[in-house]
């Protein structure tokens, strides 16, 4: 037995609540990391539009003028909101692009555990740099590099805790792992938004840095329960066969389909806060609801929906009717479409008046449930079906689908000022529905290829 297999067997044998103990260290690490990430994300678009990109602040940001010149050479003149949207899309897109390289580095040289530690250090430095206007773009760069080393590798470690044939526990493990993501995504915008509203932007960014450091400490404490490298074969360096390439091709197609619902989902973080501030009735008595709290509602729905969804899937499985992975991804697309369409309908109903907060709350809940259906399922599918030796690399490519989504989000967000709000959100409903239609048309054929893995 190889050292890698011995480590994996030891990690998998230490169980808690029916899952490897390492899963819970990974989930808590991800919760703290997501606290810092989503806490900062909840502030980013508003911070840029309300302060950073104003002339008296923008002149002090290193490299910002050159970035604007480059973007306007491609997209034409940009308003402050459109420029902020492009920066948001580039940042969040690159956050999900760099895991491809993080996966390659981990697979070939340093292993997943070391990559996650280096990534956490880089992200901590990035959050600290966010406290200063001048280092804003440097902060984003550090966060992008750190995320590349951390994201795909920590997700690959979840799959590496389970035997290859244990598909059910692996899928449920990824759902529990995603619960950690959503716990952090709940608390982050709530606390960072509250501190920013009462004490200033940089207090919100500062608390994000603190919790990134706590995430690093959590990971180091559970280090011994985690596989250093994720391998699923005694011959990880073998050449890819023709069947392997067919599986890789099918996984690429599935990832492209999920780009569509990701576009409709993640616009919640870009244009969503600006629209909320402009059109939602935020004053309740003497208290004004912090705008980032609406992003937390999305994550609350994802966390609260986990036990219900697992119960539904177990009940369906006992009757032999649990949807397969492709069908679950399709459900996620249709739920995202319905949520965006509902928001567009509410805007039309209120006809220019400020909208009751109930509507964006329902919109956020619908997107939270759609996330549970499609994203953990995609990660579990890649972990199970990806050929050995390129597992973390393909997990990084799965995150790269979010790179494409967020680049599109930044571009589409630039049209917000030129469209009616109802048309803007209806467009996102149509984009998600296209993903659901693609699963309906191609899901069975893709499933046949992937089930052979």
Walk me through what this model shows.
The protein has one domain (3-228, 242-450): MFS general substrate transporter like domains (Growth Hormone, Chain: A), CATH 1.20.1250.20. Helices cover 79% and strands 2% of the residues. The protein has helices at residues 3-13, 21-52, 55-58, 64-75, 80-97, 99-129, 136-160, 167-199, 201-221, 242-279, 293-318, 325-350, 358-385, 391-413, 421-450, and strands spanning 15-16, 19-20, 283-284, 287-288. The strands form two sheets. A two-stranded antiparallel ribbon has the order 1-2. Strands 3-4 form a two-stranded antiparallel ribbon.
Topology overview:
Elements: H1 3-13, E1 15-16, E2 19-20, H2 21-52, H3 55-58, H4 64-75, H5 80-97, H6 99-129, H7 136-160, H8 167-199, H9 201-221, H10 242-279, E3 283-284, E4 287-288, H11 293-318, H12 325-350, H13 358-385, H14 391-413, H15 421-450
Antiparallel strand pairs: 1-2, 3-4
Helix pairs in contact: 2-5, 2-7, 2-8, 2-9, 2-10, 5-7, 5-14, 6-7, 6-9, 6-14, 7-13, 7-14, 8-9, 8-11, 8-13, 10-12, 10-13, 10-14, 10-15, 11-13, 12-13, 12-15, 13-14
Features of the shown structure:
mainly alpha; Growth Hormone, Chain: A; two-stranded antiparallel ribbon; globular; disordered N terminus
Order of helices and strands: HEEHHHHHHHHHEEHHHHH
Q: What multimeric state do the chains show?
A: single chain
Q: Structural class from helices and strands?
A: mainly alpha
**CATH homologous superfamily label:** MFS general substrate transporter like domains
Largest sheet: 2 strands, antiparallel
Radius of gyration from CA coordinates: 21 Å
**General shape:** globular
The CATH class name reads Mainly Alpha
What is the spatial order of strands in the main beta sheet? 1-2
How many angstroms does the end-to-end distance come to? 23 Å
Uncertain regions spanning at least 5 consecutive residues: 1-8
Q: What percentage of the residues does DSSP assign to strands (E)?
A: under 5%
Structural domains: how many = 1
Architecture, CATH level 2?
A: Up-down Bundle
Strand tally, please? 4
Given the structure, what is the number of helices? 15
Average pLDDT confidence is: 87
Under CATH, the topology can be stated as Growth Hormone, Chain: A
User: Helicity level, as a percent range?
Assistant: over 70%
